[in-house]
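Amino Acid Chain and Its Fold in Token Form
===========================================
Structure side: the spatial fold of the chain, written down as a series of whole-number tokens.
Position: the record begins directly beneath this header, with no further notes in between.
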Amino acid sequence: MSERIEQMMRQVKLGGMAKGWRSVDYENAEQYVTDLLKLELQEREANRMNRMVKIAGFRVLKTLDDFVWNAAIELPAGLTREYMTELRFLAPRENLIFLGTVGTGKTHLATAIALKACQEGRRARFFTAAELANTLLEKSTKGTLNSFLGTLKKTELIVIDEIGFVPLHKDSAELLFQVISDCYERKSLIITSNLEFSQWNTVFGDNRLTAALVDRLIHHSHIVIFSGESFRLTQSLNRQRGRS
């Protein structure tokens, strides 16, 4: 009989109840039904968050609990850690720009903030700059660009990681500029780069386009500087010292 009950629950798409109904104590009908419904709602919320995390496209999941703040991370005047980590920048549609050398934690913090957004039911997407540029060019070639841009418009937060690692094709650069322009005052961006703004023309290959891009980005942005040595290099050296 128990198996039949579970089967019927799953047939009417009550997977949360099917998993946990045996653990619910019965005191009275109202309490019992309420607790069953709570099980189902919790299951659906967990599934929804998992879907949002999957859609976001994180390469590796990183959390704020694992992030190490240090004196080499320079916050601009008026910006606090809490303003970033509590997602307060999303409501006014402000951007976060993380600039600094390789391995200093930019991607980790960007990923962790976007992951928290997903966990709070906010739609987020994560791309490397090269990945997004190539995707845009591919969609444009196939005639599906507008559909893809439509999915981006539904997000509250887009992370564009590693601007500066790979020079972009002219057409790709122009498409990426279009995406960033479309986000202006409509949604928040987190940008990470190992280059100062004055060097971004080496990536986009067009001084005028680069100037317009930077102008839009910094208007409603908080620029965080990551200096110091690479965390990965430091950890590797420490492991080698430990072995020796």
Q: What stands out?
A: The chain has two domains: 2-53, 73-237. The domain at 73-237 is CATH 3.40.50.300 (Rossmann fold). The beta strands are 73-74, 95-100, 124-128, 157-163, 188-193, 221-226. The longest helix spans residues 29-56.
